[in-house]
Each structure stands twice: as structure tokens, then as C-alpha cells.
């Protein structure tokens, strides 16, 4: 629970710190538009609070990470962590940049914009945001994802920080008596900044979701996905509040009722600021969570055998059926008699600061134990095989960084985990099957095309002689979603066989062969008619699919062939390429096409 709070403190502090000069120069306008404040003012004090939050959050997270590695915290361990580990060095550099940014920002707070500040402050701010991105789990996904995360977090911080400062001082003069006209200018500038930031947030957020959210189960069934849903709801609330302020209240600031409208704007913008604080908190929580990527595994089995203190062992690591890694351990005495013993596998990443994963191995027969793990991150791992409660074997060696090996260590195996080879073979392909292969596909295509036409027409009306901005925003969103859906009917991301046509003839004999195979291998889960009501189907999670549903039938024959051959990840659906020939699998698909017919 402490890690999300520390990450949220860092995100809020970052926004308050970088938002002050952005608000002062971009939102409040140039010195010609407003009087210079005689002293630091409340905005600078708010930035100072941001620096404190950022510092406490970063240092606290460093202490937490060091404690997770060593199990205890003292000055020697903290010094080693902040000097020797990549994560620790990032925190030190980030805080140094924050101190320089805060000092420079405060120094020029009562002066006109200088050339040095114009270049130094953006550079220092980018460095701080890069520290947040580099220390996040997105930073371990490669340089491209780090840059995308940098733009995302930077946009949230700049927009959110500027909005929080605007809520404190809407007119940019540190005074509640500022003119409504100056307040209107500030609000319009903030709106322009917000539109650019939200556009960047949506684009980069979509790219990160495509990279880390592999399906609906990852979105609804993991902490990362659930936090993302909460964040999206909060962002929608901020946009709704911003639309009310921008289109309903701000135009009144240039009319006779400007004084009353200014008071209303101050109240409503505080509600918007509270929602922004929640968005910043959700962003910080997401930054520290492990994204639910596709299950990770190893490309091929790893085997090792040896002798440790009179115990003969055989070790094996092999890829599991659904992206897991399976560990096997066989124990025997020098005469070859199986030995009974409890054992563990301890997993950790030497190049990352994260706690180790300990997996208890389960006896499956005399002298044979089995364990299974789902790894949260790709990269280099070490597996330490240990016996519990045994004094035989070599003297255990405790790793100086991880502190592992409190029991007898039989062996240490290095391996590299990555996305399952099955998942790594995803390709983009063009298909007409979903759009024209079935009646429902044609109907959905007509619906989406109709929505595109409606969206274009609504956008033209909203942008006419009497512009109506809420309708323009709604029409733009509808148009974007409709065009996306039309494209998804023709372009998809799937397996190499997705575009293949079914090579077996579409005859009654082929369908009968497919029916017989289906009843033998598939009906126990999917039911005799493929409705997901088989005797084993209800006991599975997720339950067996109803193969008569339109979304199943809209898949191409090639997509179904791959799923039948390789199985479906994260489900109990196994692969049948070892049980059925290619011709038999294609015949089953011919039968599946008949299930949805009346």
C-alpha cells in the first residue's frame, strides 16, 4: 500500500513544481498583461510544497526498494542502493534536477522571462519527468516506450500543474480582485494548453495500452487495468468540468454579468482542480505498477544435472501451456534411490531492484517435485533451487545483493524470459472475412459507416455560422470511434495463419468428420452443440466459450485454425496440433461454421 502512495506523492509534487512557471508564462500571460508580484506569492509557495512532496515520495520509494532487497534498512545499505543501483541513481539525479528547477523557478518568479530560464527550465523539467519514466516499469520496455511514457507523464504534469495554479489564482495576479477580462484571457490560454495536453495524453495512453493491455481480462482483472479504468473515469470528469467552464462560464466574463461569472468560475475550477489531483494520484499509482503484459516464458527447455553434498539432482525448466514456466526437480541418493524432501525455487532479477519470488515445489511422485510460475517482467532472471530443512549439501552462499539462499542451494540457473513464442508471432493483416463473410459483419459495417456519415454531418453543423462547441467535441469523438471500428473490420492483429483460406472442401462429408472430432475432443467443454454448456465448461475460468456467438463466428478460418492448433492463452483451451492432423483441424472449422446456422 505504501508504494502507490509514494508514487502518487511524486506525481502530485512534480505537477505542482513544473506547473508554476508554465502557469506564470503560458497561462497568466506575459508581464505586459499582468502586474509583477512584489514577492514569491502563493504560487511559488505551492511549488515549494510540490518540491517537498516530490522529495519525500522519491526518497521514501528508495527506502522501500532498498528494504525489499535487503530486508532491512541502515545507512550502509541506503548508501549502496543510491550509489550502485540504477534505480537509486535515477532518484538522486531526479532530486538534483528538481532542486535546480525549483531554485531557478523561484529566482525568476518576480522577473521578466529571461533567455536562460527559457531554455534551462524546460530542460530541467524534461529531465525530472524522464527520471519518473526511467524508473517506471514502462522504462524497462525499451527506449521507444520510455519516450512515450515521458510525453504522457509530462503532459499530465504540465496541464495538471498549470490547472492547480490556475485554481489558486485564476487571473494571474495573486489577487482575488483581478479583472474578469484578465481572468478570461487566462482561462482561454489554459483551455488551449489543455487541448494540446489531452491530445498527447490520449495518443500516448492509447499506445501504452496497446503495448501493455493484451485483452479484456488484463483491463478488468488486474490492478493495473482497474487503476487505468479509474483514471479514465476521472479524466472524463475533468474534461466534463473543463467543458462547462470553457463554454458556459468563460464567455460570460466579457458580458455585464462578468463579476458574478468570475465568482462562479473560481468555484467550478476548484472542483476541476480536485479531479485533477485525483488524476495525478491515479497516474502515480499506475507508474509504479507492473503492467499486465502477455504471459512470459522461455523459448526452449533448460536442463541441468549434478551432485551436491551426496544428493544427485536433475533440474528442468520448460515453457508451460499458457505462458508460464514449469520447474522440475528430481532428487536421488548416490545409489539412485529417490529422496523425499521439500524444496523451493527462488526467482529474482539481478539487474532490477525488486523483491524475489519464492515458489514452493509440489511432490508429484517419489523424488520428483514440480513448480510453476508466472513472471511479471521480461529480461534476465536467476532461479535458485533450494532444499528446505536439510543440513546436507554445500554450504549455502548468500548473494550480497538479493540476500537469497537461506536454505541449502542445489544450483543457480540463469535464463532469459520473454513474450511467449506463440504471442511473439502476432502480425498485422488485411481481411474481408469480418466485414463480408457473415450477414452480421455486413450489418455492423453499415452501422459504422452510417455513424461516420452522421459524425461528419454533425461536425459540419457544429462548425457552421453559429458554432456549438459541445456538439463539435461529441461529433469528433463519434467520428474517430466510428472510423476506428470500420478499420477494425478490415485490418486486424493476429496470427500468421489468420489470412489463410480453409483448404478442405465444404462438403457434407467434411462437416460430418468435423462433427465427430468435435464430439470427441471439444464437446466435454463446449457442449454437444458448441454453446459452452459442456459438463466441464462451467468449472473452467474463464468458462468455455459459446461457439455460436457472433464474435466467434466473425473470426476467419485461419484465426480459428491457429487457436485450435496452439490453444488460447490465459484459458484452459489446449492446443490440438499433436492430436489432430491439419486436415482434421480444418474439418472441425467447417463444422463450427454450421453451429450458428438455424
Short description:
This protein has 598 residues and is of the alpha+beta class. It has 19 helices and twelve strands.
Name the descriptors.
55% helix; 12 strands; Immunoglobulin-like; 598 residues; five-stranded antiparallel β-sheet; alpha+beta; 4 domains; 13% strand
Question: How would you characterize this protein structure?
Answer:
- It contains 19 helices and 12 strands.
- With 598 residues, it is α+β, with helices and mostly antiparallel strands.
- It folds into 4 domains: 2-287; 296-421, Sandwich (Immunoglobulin-like); 425-492; 495-598, Cytochrome c-like domain (Cytochrome Bc1 Complex, Chain D, domain 2).
- It has a 5-stranded antiparallel β-sheet with strand order 1-10-9-5-6.
- A hairpin with a 5-residue loop joins strand 3 (311-319) and strand 4.
- Helix 1 (2-27) packs across helix 10 (258-287), helix 13 (439-462) runs antiparallel to helix 14 (469-488) and helix 15 packs across helix 19 (582-595).
- How many distinct beta strands? 12
Mean pLDDT: 76
Structural domain tally: 4
User: What is the count of helical runs?
Assistant: 19
Query: What is the overall shape?
Result: flat
Roughly what fraction of the amino acids lie in strands? 5-15%
Terminal residue distance: 53 Å
Profile the largest sheet.
5 strands, antiparallel
Please state the structural category: alpha+beta
Poorly predicted runs are 31-40, 172-177, 390-407
* Range of helix content: 40-55%
Radius of gyration: 30 Å
Kindly report the spatial arrangement of strands forming the biggest sheet: 1-10-9-5-6
